[in-house]
Amino acid sequence: VNTLSFSHDGQLLACGCADATIHFIDIPSGKLEKLNQSGSTDELASVSNNQSKGHISEVRRICFHPLRSDEFASGGDDGLLFIWKRSNSAKDWSQLYRFETKGIVQALRYDRQGDRLGVATAKGQVRVFWFNETDLAGIASERRNRTRFASPPR
Predict the structure, then answer these.
(1) If DSSP states are collapsed to H, E and C, what string results for 46-78?
(2) By C-alpha distance, which of 24, 78, 33 is closest to 53?
(3) Predicted TM-score (pTM) above 0.70
(4) 6-10, 38-42, 64-68: least confidently modelled range
(5) Largest CA distance in the chain
(6) pLDDT in tens, 112-140
(7) What is the DSSP track for 94-115?
(8) How, if at all, do strands 12-16 and 22-26 pair?
(9) Three-class SS of residue 17?
(10) Local structure of 130: helix, strand or coil
């Protein structure tokens, strides 16, 4: 397990793993589920590494939307950023967006309202994704304030 994130209501704990999978723990029941490549969760689901469906290498960061427990972002060593949304069915997650960040995702964070998602990569790139309040499909800008930071001395 590389990363953990609680949903805003505290009912789900998402775990990003080294085998390119995302697992969920339902806190009230203690049940463990795995997000499979079709977007549904299943206790025994197997994950095939398919780039069009999900991560193909380690999942490094997960961040739930601050106001909605049915939406989260994930990023990994593959340089991919996904936005996932849970459907009305408690078991189905669908991939809303797939972005290439051109570097290992080191950090993910939504702003307080969930309108913006900040992403930092191992190459020192910081990107901010802006989302329309009513419809996540209304991305206003993917790269408005791109800034390059030098890595701190070690």
Answers:
(1) CCCCCCCCCCCCCEEEEEECCCCCCEEEEEECC
(2) 78
(3) yes
(4) 38-42
(5) 48
(6) 999 899 999 999 899 888 876 544 443 43
(7) EEEEEEE-SS-EEEEEE-TTSS
(8) antiparallel
(9) coil
(10) strand
- Sheet with 116-121, side-by-side order of all strands: 105-110, 116-121, 125-130, 147-148
Alpha-carbon gap, residue 94 to 139, rounded angstroms: 18
Side chain identity, residue 92: D
Burial of 52 (0-12, 13-18, 19+ CB in 10 A): exposed
Short-list 127, 39, 35, CA closest to 81: 127
Q: Which tokens sit at 118?
A: 């900040």
Structure tokens at 126: 């910081």
**pLDDT digits 0-9 by tens, 29-41:** 999 888 755 445 5
